[in-house]
Structure prediction request, 228 residues.
Amino acid sequence: ALDDAAGEVRRRLGTPSVVVANAGIAEGGPFATSDPQLWRRVVDVNLTGSAHTARAFLPDLLNTAGYHLQVASLASLGAAPMMSAYCASKAGVEAFVHSLRAEVAHHGIAVGIAYLNWIDTDMIRDADRHPVLRELRGHMPPPARRTFPPDEVAARLVRAVERRRTAVYVPGWLRLAQLGRTTLPPLVLRLSRHELPRLEAEGSLEPTGPLGAGGLADRQEGGAGAGA
Prediction:
């Protein structure tokens, strides 16, 4: 399907010189009670799908000395409980980008990664309907739990594309999280030990299922059940 999409882009617009890999889905809940097929599907879309996107368009980027931007997440820098598939996929995406960049730099292709925090999308609004995800976000420091308008984030990504940035952080303070990423797991662990027992006693640690319109559409199309 991605090969077909790449062919359609070439026919309609010419040889692409910029590719943005942005597709992503998420689900939340304890790993122990997660649906194995849905867990795998999140990784398939977010990580394997990103690699397929790069593969489909690399011939074009070679011809244009183009730019590939991979959309990642705060989850690439620090994993959170109840989001194991999403965090694993975004950490994998980060490693994939670093590897790809090193492979293609001598061909004049630039590869960037966008670290994004909470964006006001249907995925995040859907996550906030679930007590455990809402409370875990609510216990983050105020700057870290703020959501950002999609238009503002898109404008930042456009500037990153224009400047062929190696990395872009939205908001900018995420650079500090990058520098201090070794301190994040102990902080997350401390918060989890304090909050999860109460949420577990309240019966709030239920799987969320696919989050947002994208996750729901993927499941309705049979993606989660196919094990693709």
About this structure: The CA atoms of residues 25 and 215 lie 5 Å apart. The first strand starts at residue 18 and ends at 21.
